[in-house]
Amino acid sequence: MTASDALTADADARTDFGYRVLVFRRGRLSGRWSRRSAVVGTILGVTALSLTIVAVSIGTYPLSLAQIASALIGTADAQTTLLVTGWRLPRALIALACGVALALSGAIFQSLTRNPLGSPDIIGFSSGSYTGAVVMMLAVGSTRYLDVAAASLVGGCATAIVVYVLATRNGSAQPFRLIIMGIGVGALLSSLNSALMLFVDVDTAMLAAVWAAGSLNGLGYEQLVPLAGVLAILVVALAILAPSIGQLESGDDAARGVGVRANAVRSASVVVGVALTALVTAAAGPISFVALAAPQIARRLTRSPGLNLTSSALVGASVLLASDIVAQRLGFPVGVVTAALGGAYLAWLLATEFRRTQRI
User: Fold this and answer.
1) Is residue 248 included in any domain, yes or no?
2) How many CB atoms lie within 10 A of CB 278?
3) What is the pLDDT of residue 254?
4) 296-305 long-range contacts, Cβ below 8 Å, gap at least 24?
5) Whole-prediction pTM value?
6) Engineered SS bond to 167: which of 18, 21, 26, 178, CB 3.0-4.6 Å?
7) Average pLDDT, the chain
8) What is the CATH number of the domain that holds 308?
9) With the CA atoms of 73, 75, 79 and 81 taken in that order, what torsion angle do they form, in degrees rounded to the nearest 10?
10) Which residues contact 174 (CB under 8 A, 6 or more apart)?
11) Which pLDDT value is given to residue 250?
12) 3-state secondary structure of 348
């Protein structure tokens, strides 16, 4: 340890952060985490791993842990190997990846709007991604993953631009106006999506309607590989933006005071957030409420006042995978389960926020 490292370590030891911290330092690399966040993150990671094992083991043909392990190392029979590596494991991994993407997207927009209701579900960005995908599927006639993903991204970004323009006053987007305008634009797009169904044949409309429910049925490595690759790129981009996004929570003036280019960071963050939502929409359809609930659950578990991406991602992965397990047992699309759970959570969140504002 150098002299400067020793001085910094001593400063960390004497500084009261208001919570217990874990400090990592190795040469030029350093990091600091609250001990509670580290413990919660570990528990959430174990939970996600356990749910993955459950998801692979259950079904019409139940599998034991020994059978799963033998299939993964290549010593199982052909039927067991097909069940594990060909069908069930890809679906579980897609659920984990989609949960991570939705949770990170929700964390971005809730941080930018400084409001627990500021998720892509509520402010219309998910509806924009859905509209882009529907136009590609119904008007253009393409259902290729890359085509639908590109259309979802364009639709989401176009919606974000419209919402931000409508919410801008005196040169800056007001968080409350952003949510209200987003709700209005989202409602308009939902009506447009319904109208589009009236101008196509019944079979095509049924295909789009089933996809719109949000389902992981029939997904495999064809969707998993590009989904995981693009998600990895977006996570790296978000990791670079995360410190600046955290500074924006203090307000644009305070962020600019420490050298953050507020407008550029906000624009880049919106593109990353919309891309995360579009990624899931293209693969599995619009899965609602995970982006709304996961960051708030993570914040309550870690008691963290700011942006907590790791815990949010782990909560999102666990929530979506658990919902998919329930959906498989009930025979429903996973989007139906998340909508039912998310609706109850939204009602509780609105009631909680109302009581908090009444006390103020």
Assistant:
1) yes
2) 31
3) 80
4) 296/110, 296/116, 296/349, 298/40, 298/103, 298/107, 301/40, 301/44, 302/34, 302/36, 302/37, 302/40, 302/41, 303/19, 303/36, 304/34, 304/37
5) 0.86
6) 178
7) 84
8) 1.10.3470.10
9) 10
10) 167, 168
11) 78
12) helix
